[in-house]
Amino acid sequence: MHATERESIILNLLAKRDFVSFRDLESKIDGSPATIRRDLERLDSEGKIARVRGGAKSVLSDDTHMQPDLKLFGTPFHENVTQNTKQKRAIGQAAAELCKSGEGIMIDGGSTTLQMCPFLEGLNLQVLTNSLHIVHALGMQSGTRVLVPGGAVFPEQNIILPLFGEDLTPAFYAPKLFMGAAALNARGLLQDDVVLVASERRFMERAETVIVLADASKFENSSGNVVCPLEEIDILITDARISEQNAQSIESAGIRLIVADT
Predict the structure, then answer these.
(1) pLDDT, tens digit, 9 for 90 and up, residues 157-181
(2) FRET partner for 229 with CA separation of 20 to 30 A, picked from 17, 62, 91, 141?
(3) Contact 114/89 with Cβ under 8 angstroms?
């Protein structure tokens, strides 16, 4: 599990309660006790949490707790990021292999798109993303330039989305957009929340090629809000668990199908 993923789990737990025990963190994080302790010490030094005996405390003020609780429908990021990790990493690597040195790309927030980040090192990309997880993962890469849109931060997903129909996305156009999905079926690409749908549509309007990263479990879901019909997707990257029927449906829609090797 990446440091970014572990940090997300810790911060999301503390967004819901004032204290989290070390034992609770051990049960939810794929990492050694020493690694978790180092994560807590780093987050404490950065002022993001308060390290205390037996665990960690939130550093949010009373005023912060009074702010509106911005939440999206769907599975929180800290839960998504622990599911199908092997497949997501392979999908992320296959997606990164589509990038060309020096180009500009857009990466929509998600637990699968996050897996691209380690494989983008050294490509000197310019990346527009709405994900603070991706910002953190790319921020230390030499030569990678990261841009973010304006908007409000949704803590459970740790993404930035505009509210009230605003379009605060920079005037950025890219040859490739990489995005995830809550579900894929005959209706198209689906997401759980309409706020997320609107943001992704704005990204799609600025991209020449729409590339969807979705592990095969996403074909098992059937509910959600339609982002786009299948015909608007150019490339789909998934894993070898995809059924023959679903693979045929994807290719029949004119989508290039890439099955990542796990």
Answers:
(1) 889 887 655 666 777 899 999 999 9
(2) 91
(3) no
Count CB atoms within 10 A of the CB of residue 121. Answer: 15
Diameter of the chain measured on Cα atoms: 58
pLDDT of residue 12: 78
All CATH 1.10.10.10 domain ranges in the chain, comma separated: 3-67
According to DSSP H, which parts of the chain are helical?
3-16, 22-28, 33-45, 62-65, 77-80, 85-96, 132-139, 194-205, 244-252
d(CA 71, CA 60): 17
Q: What is the rounded end-to-end Cα distance, in angstroms, of the chain?
A: 16
Closest CA to 22 of 37, 8, 12: 37
Q: What is the pLDDT of residues 69-112, one digit of tens each?
A: 567 777 777 778 888 999 999 999 999 999 999 999 999 999 99
Percent of all residues in the chain with a pLDDT value above 70, rounded to a whole number: 93
Q: Which fold has domain 79-260?
A: Rossmann fold (3.40.50)
**All CATH 3.40.50.1360 domain ranges in the chain, comma separated:** 79-260
